[in-house]
C-alpha cells in the first residue's frame, strides 16, 4: 500500500462508506469486484488511494483511480463498475463540495486576478476527471493524517478541505467548478433545479416549474439540463426516485407500496416495473437482501 492508501484503510475498517471525524468527509472501502450497476453520486470530490472505479454516463465511459480524481459538480445518477479484491480493496476519499467554501475561495482568487478567462460554457458538465498532481496528493495526505485524530480533524480539517478544493481549482479541467459558483452560468442554474428535485422528489415535479425556477424557457432548460446531467429532467427524476426507493427498502424494510408512495409513484405496479428494469431485481428481492 502507498502511504495514502494506508491512511485511508485505517479510516475505513468496514465495507462501504465509513464516516470520519469531519462532517462531509467519508472513506469508501470495497473488497470485491462490483459489476456495472446504477447508483447516484453526490456532489463532491473523490480521490482514490487504491483500486479503480469505472463510470458509465450516457454513452461515455471514464475511469478514476490513484492517478485521476473525480469531481462531481452536481449529484448524478450513473452506472458504476468497481475493480477490487480482498487482497487489494478499492479505497476512496469522498469530500462533499460546500458551496460556501467554494464561493469563498473563488472570491479570493478573483481579488488576486486568478480567475481563468476562458471558462468555456461547453465544458461545464456535471463532472470532470483531473489528473492528480504532487500538490493534490500532499493535500490529500495531510487531510487523511488529520482525520486520524478527532482533535486534529476539528482544528485543521476545514482548512485542509479548503486547500484541497483550491488545488482542484488550479487544475486545467476546473471550469465546471467556477461555473458552479457563478450565478449566470448554465451549470449553476441546473444545479439550482437539481437541488429542488432532491428536496421534492416525492412530490409532483413539472419541467415547466423547474424552468421557471431558474428563469429559462422549458426548451432551453431541457437542453441545458441534458448537457449537464446526460439525462432529461424526467429521466433524472425517475432515477433519483428509484435510487431513494432502494435505500428505503434496504434500510427501513418498508412495504413496497409504502415506498412507492413515499418516492412519488401513484401506482405501485408501475413502480415495481420501473424498479426491476433499472436495478435488474424486484423491489421485494431488494428488500430481502
From TrEMBL:
It comes from Shewanella subflava. Residues 191-289 form the HTH araC/xylS-type domain. Keywords: DNA-binding, Transcription, Transcription regulation. The lineage of its organism: Bacteria, Pseudomonadati, Pseudomonadota, Gammaproteobacteria, Alteromonadales. This is AraC family transcriptional regulator. InterPro entries: Homeodomain-like_sf (IPR009057), HTH_AraC (IPR018060), HTH_AraC-typ_CS (IPR018062), Tscrpt_reg_AraC-type_HTH (IPR020449), Tscrpt_reg_HTH_AraC_N (IPR009594). Pfam families: AraC_N (PF06719), HTH_18 (PF12833).
Amino acid at each position: 500500500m502507498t502511504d495514502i492508501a494506508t491512511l485511508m484503510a485505517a479510516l475505513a475498517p468496514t465495507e462501504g462508506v465509513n464516516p470520519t471525524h469531519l462532517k462531509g468527509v467519508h472513506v469508501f472501502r470495497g473488497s470485491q469486484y462490483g459489476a456495472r450497476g446504477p447508483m447516484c453520486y453526490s456532489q463532491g470530490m473523490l480521490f482514490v488511494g487504491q483500486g479503480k472505479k469505472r463510470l458509465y454516463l450516457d454513452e461515455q465511459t471514464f475511469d478514476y483511480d490513484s492517478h485521476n480524481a473525480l469531481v462531481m459538480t452536481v449529484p448524478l445518477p450513473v452506472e458504476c463498475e468497481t475493480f477490487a479484491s480482498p487482497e487489494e480493496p478499492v479505497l476512496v476519499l469522498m469530500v462533499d463540495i460546500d458551496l460556501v467554501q467554494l464561493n469563498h475561495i473563488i472570491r479570493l482568487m478573483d481579488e488576486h486576478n486568478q480567475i481563468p478567462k476562458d471558462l468555456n460554457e461547453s465544458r461545464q458538465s456535471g463532472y470532470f476527471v483531473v489528473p492528480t498532481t504532487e500538490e493534490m496528493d500532499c493535500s490529500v495526505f495531510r487531510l487523511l493524517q488529520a482525520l486520524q485524530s478527532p482533535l486534529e480533524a476539528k482544528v485543521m480539517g476545514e482548512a485542509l478541505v479548503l486547500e484541497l478544493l483550491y488545488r482542484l481549482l488550479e487544475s486545467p479541467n476546473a471550469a465546471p467548478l467556477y461555473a458552479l459558483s457563478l450565478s449566470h452560468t448554465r451549470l449553476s442554474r441546473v444545479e439550482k433545479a437539481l437541488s429542488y428535485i432532491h428536496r421534492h422528489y416525492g412530490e409532483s415535479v413539472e419541467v415547466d416549474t423547474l424552468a421557471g425556477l431558474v428563469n429559462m424557457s422549458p426548451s432551453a432548460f431541457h437542453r441545458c439540463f441534458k448537457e449537464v446531467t446526460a439525462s432529461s429532467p424526467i429521466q433524472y427524476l425517475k432515477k433519483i426516485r428509484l435510487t431513494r426507493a432502494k435505500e428505503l427498502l434496504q434500510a427501513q424494510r418498508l412495504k413496497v407500496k409504502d415506498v412507492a408512495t413515499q418516492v412519488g409513484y401513484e401506482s405501485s405496479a408501475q413502480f415495481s416495473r420501473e424498479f426491476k428494469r433499472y436495478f435488474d431485481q424486484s423491489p421485494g428481492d431488494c428488500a430481502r437482501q
